[in-house]
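Bit of a strange request maybe. I'm writing a small parser for structure token strings and I need a real example to test against, not something I typed by hand. Could someone generate the tokens for this chain?
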Amino acid sequence: MGQEVPPVNPWLALTPGDDPAERIRQIGRAHERFLAGDRQRGRMRAVVADSWARSAAFVRADSTAPIDLADDDLEAYRSAHPLARVMPILRDLLGGLAEDGEHILAVCDAHGRLLWVEGHPATLRGAASMNFVPGARWDEAHAGTNAPGTALAVDHALQIFATEHFSHPVQRWTCAAAPVHDPGTGRLLGAIDVTGGDHLANPHSLALVRATALAAEAYLRGSEPVRQQPRVAALGRDEAVLALGSRRIRVKRRHSELLVLLTVHPEGRTGDQLGIDLYGDDINPVTIRAELSRLRRILGAELLDSRPYRLRAGVETDFGAVTRLLEAGRTADALAAYPGPLLPASDAPGIVRLRRLLDDRLRAALLESGDRRLLRTWLNSSWGSDDLDLWEAYAALTPADPLAARRVAALTREYACNVRATWP
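Reply from user aminoacidic:
Good idea to test on real output. This should exercise your parser:
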């Protein structure tokens, strides 16, 4: 019997017996054919061929990764990022490589934004020539095939070797990267990466970054703080209040509208969709972008994402709580949790729709309840005092109450006069 051939690890760049120089030439020729339209894989690794196909839909082979965050925005974002807590571990386990003059340690978020890039100054200068710097966007859609970006795309540790990179300026580097997850939720937090020369294409570098990612996740699991979900209060007030842990932030009116709209669309909204929600047909894209930029400074880049615009964390809202109580049939509790209409001074079309929907649901529940105490609570409020439908229901339940009958008669006359005054 012949000797059994060990299975090939698809995440390793080279297999035993490969000549690195010859593989660089083979892959380089395959890359040229791919750019010319020949999509046959040949001896290409499937993970690389698939990544090239994804990358080609977004970037050119001579493109450079864009800078997405800089200066104070970058510092604020990465200091609040969960991976900031494990940087001492990453430096301890990988710092020796980053200081030897041949390697770079890099850490990115789940969107491929590089948060930390560390190493010998001369090596960092070489990396900076291709924008491998903090704040740059290295997901596949912005930088093509590369170890941290592709590790995020496939959610697996891997190596990307020399000419396997999609972008020509990156092809003199070899990288090994591994994704890091939130141990509590499984959510992808980002990736850690070691970048250097062709000698990185060995099983040890891949095992090292994978072990380091596991160590980071283990540390996060043991040090997980008690999380307080962000909360928005927007009922009965013209400016919402955002609670972030112990902080209470009063949000200006237009930003309050944006915040409320984003909470009810967790899947995200485009700038145009938000513009219609705020201004109707009178959309000004420049104004929308400016308002969203200011809102991001208020919330922090860790909470507000773009493309599309969405809140990264689940946000509890007072109007959402009222809706859930109504859905559960708990009308009395819903009324007790309702301090007034949603952003009552807002005339933004999207907010007006939400406000009317919630008010109509609550009023319908009150009418269906037939509980005169609940009806009276609504009618005693500033927003319910002129509600003719509920006054009529209350009067039917309290025929001996002359106040109710007089109020129904007065509102009926008032509304009739208003109709005649507006009749053409």
